[in-house]
Amino acid sequence: MNVQLFIPCFVDQLFPETAFNMVKVLEKLGCNVMYNAEQTCCGQPAYNAGYQDECRTVATKFVKDFKTFDYIVAPSGSCTGFVRNYYGKLFDNSAAHNDVKLLKKNLFEFTEFLTDVLHVTDLGATLNGVATYHDACGALRECHIKEGPRKLLEKVKGLELKEMNDCEVCCGFGGTFAVKFEPISMGMGEQKVHNAVNSGADYLISTDLSCLMHLDGYIRKHGTNIKVMHIADVLASGW
């Protein structure tokens, strides 16, 4: 099975090890993994800021870069959800309409690809400790991903999964929201971290590094005793 990697901007620039761990997992499962080095942003930041024309320019390149019949897999529910749910509006009645339909059909968030396409839940991973899972807005609300990541984490040897209060509530990042409304954003992040700590977890895990980056900022500033991990890093542990 051929798999094209879509690596979002912040993963590429700040958390490349997560991308490498995703490759490690996919190759273990027999996938032929490829990466188009010409890829750039999907356009979500510009769209959310109200710059639709500029977003369309970036998105047009994205559609061309991922014009393929292969599966496309990304370690982000947020970027995956944006392409799926908003590219249709951006390219409605355009020459790229059919290419966008193909792109949306082939694009999957990482955990979704594992559970829904490959039908795998046990990767042979090992991580000792207690974990809690944060439902990132992009994964939950844009991609309707809920049970899959939990099934994957339940199979990790040595890891006990505990639900925290308000696991589906936004962490407060929201892209530019964290900049425009910093006090509200930090308050929401504080609440999320406290709920995670109160669950007794050693690890706060999610599908989206944008959320985890925001939460880790609060954790580091206040010296809170919990570690954030992307689920790809968890699934690549211990083997």
Automatic annotation (TrEMBL):
GO cellular component entries: cytosol
Name recorded for this polypeptide: L-lactate dehydrogenase complex protein LldE
Cysteine-rich domain: residues covered: 3-82, 132-216
Molecular-function GO term, any one: oxidoreductase activity
Source taxon at top rank: Bacteria
One Pfam assignment: CCG
